[in-house]
Fold this protein.
Amino acid sequence: MSTLSFWQSDHRDADGFCDVAIVGGGVVGASTAYWLRRQHPALRVALFERGLLASGATGRNAGFVLQGVTSDFATDVERYGDERARRLWAVTRASRDGLLEAIPPERFDFEASGSLTLAATPEEDDRLRRSARLMYEAGLPSSYLPPGDVAQRTSSKGFYGGLLVPTGGMLDPVRLVRALAEASGAALEEQHPVLHIAPQPGGFLLETPRRRVRTAALVLAANAYAPQLVPALSAYVRPVRAQMLATEPMRPCWLPAPVYSHDGYFYLRQKATGELLLGGARHRHAEAEVGYDDAVTEALQRDLHAYLAQHFPQAEGLAVTRRWSGTMGFSPDGLPSVGPIPDLPGAYFAAGFTGHGLAYGFRVGQMLAEFASGVASPADADLFDPMRLKCAAAAHL
Ligand SMILES: Cc1cc2nc3c(=O)[nH]c(=O)nc-3n(C[C@H](O)[C@H](O)[C@H](O)COP(=O)(O)OP(=O)(O)OC[C@H]3O[C@@H](n4cnc5c(N)ncnc54)[C@H](O)[C@@H]3O)c2cc1C
């Protein structure tokens, strides 16, 4: 929570007004703005982002557009049941397809590469085989790759089998957010943090360092940061850190699709320009990788190098050009919450994407836009109903 002094508050601009205020300029906030414009072009929408657009997890991620909500379909089925897992996959598919229709894919460097999940253990390999079978039964496209195929397609060593999901892909997340925000026509309030939200008759009063803003509806798309503005939301989302590195380009390119391995705890892609982007190893440093601190650690980055040495030795010795971290929002059950903010009528939130927000951020933005414009139950929002976490939330208060 930031504060504002007596003097600062006394010297602000005149109050502002809007119909919908969105707080958070990541993939979810920008998608919400896009959908509000598409569905209700006359609404006055303002998008507040405390840094530049995509300052948060969205601009720091690997740019994988995966399908589903964990590392593979069998895990989704085990965790959420067959019917829900199928619906969750349909939502991520609709999110990807909708995005490609809404914004020309070249505007955000989308590559329809498919995605690869590679097995680091025989147990993971069994699960990928089972996923392929379950996906076939559910009518979802995928192919299981035996170890020889994996090694050949990805120039890798030491993996068991793999699963190719042809509907996966990769993109540039900063370009994506900028394209969505531009298409939305919303008033873009960059470098403009919201410090405080107060309910008032007919809506909300937002305090910012520059002015007070009155709004009829509010969308809090701050993901991991949501509890900083509404502390009760800490029952729905907690901050977890992820680290990455990027190397100098290596040509010719040898990795045709984004690779997810070790149950999603390592992820690697190669850009068309040759750079490798590698992240993960959080599971080996679980206690340290929490909270809002934007920092990289030597211990975790060493594990990233060890991963390359073991599985992609051709990349060993490449110069590292950048190392960074980002704050993800984790939820208690792996699924985000999307819906009304408890005890704040007229305010809605989405948080807790648990490392998969690019997979369904665009579709979640559509749900938030519908909530904010008065739709009581947008299609598929029941999958992410915050009320399912009600008991945990009550215990937290
Ligand atoms: C290293 C890393 C790798 C990842 N890789 C992938 C991947 O490959 N694929 C995938 O699907 N997901 C990935 N994720 C997760 C994904 O990035 C997130 O799930 C997704 O970006 C969440 O989007 P969001 O818009 O909800 O949140 P964010 O992108 O975090 O956006 C929230 C925004 O709110 C702003 N904000 C916060 N407080 C305020 C305030 N008070 N006033 C104004 N603005 C405020 C923040 O600055 C931020 O920009 C990764 C995450 C990280 C960190």
